Amino acid sequence: MVVKNSNQVEKSTNSTYDRYNEVKAFDDSKAGVRGLVESGVSKIPQMFHNEMLDIATKSICDSKLNIPIIDLKGIDINPTLREEVIGKIRSACHEWGFFQVINHEIPINVLDEMIHGIRNFHEQDVNVRKEFYTRDLREKVVYFSNTTLFTSQAADWRDTVGFVVAPDPFKPEEIPPICRDIVIEYSQKISDLGFRIFELLSEAVGLDPSYLKELKCAEGIYIMGHYFPPCPEPELTMGVGKHTDGNFMTLLLQDQIGGLEVLHENSWVKVPPTHGALVVNVGDLLQLITNDKFVSVHHRVLSPNIGPRISVATFFLSSRDPIEGASKVFGPIKELISEANPPIYKDITIQDFLSYFHAKGLDGSSSLEPFKL
Length: 373
Prior knowledge:
The chain is of the alpha+beta class. It is built from 9 helices and 15 strands.
């Protein structure tokens, strides 16, 4: 998965603004959005201005309208409780595409240390950060700003450090020393939890617990540690624009700043941070193979006016690169379709899907639409 090069940036028709040069200069600095803040900017560069903002409209925080919080405590020893939890997951995945889990067996101190480790990486001296800066996401450890910097119409106000966990994992010595120990520990624990969640998701659609794992839905695991600096003009840009995730499942650890919102029944619903919880969201490919029993929904992150905001997203995908695993085909699971419930989607390769997903960028549109029958 290589981030497109700079010749793919369309030059603005406005003769007073050269987006190409602004984007290129930003990328060449290798300092990221954090570098802009460090330089003392009071106005954000035009490349971050998002013309599709609807921040002020339909954003609600209603205690009666929150994504479900599901408690996993005791489900491995109490069959009745497990069945209740599976029912809640089934409902959450169909109605929301999101839920939070608590009592997931990853100690809270590990979650807190991971947040601190990611923050420490992004706040170390810029010359140290630059050593890791690359736009080639095939590297095992990467530091960059915006995967779609050269293809999106507006850049998001965030930087990222990423780690390949599977199938070809990083070597310990490749991890920046400032966060090495916690990244190694967290990556193992979050992978184990991911496999456990996939078992519950399999059961929630009436399949054997090992079904999704055996289907290779968790073969590729990639961690992205996002850093959202305080934004001097948060009304003009996004932390992450409206999008769905182009994978099977995401597990998200977020700090206490807030800003994550989910589009539910045409309203943006805030996802209040819950200390110790992890957010689970359905990806596009899980919607495809479950034939819409589970839904991948739009979500976004507002730019913080305080902060920084830290989040750690773990992506589960059959392959993280359009070139790798190109022959792997996915379609609606045969056990889930019938004459009364015919397939909605074509059988597609990971390469077909990811090529379209990355070329499209985070434009707010559905990544599944072209693959419908």
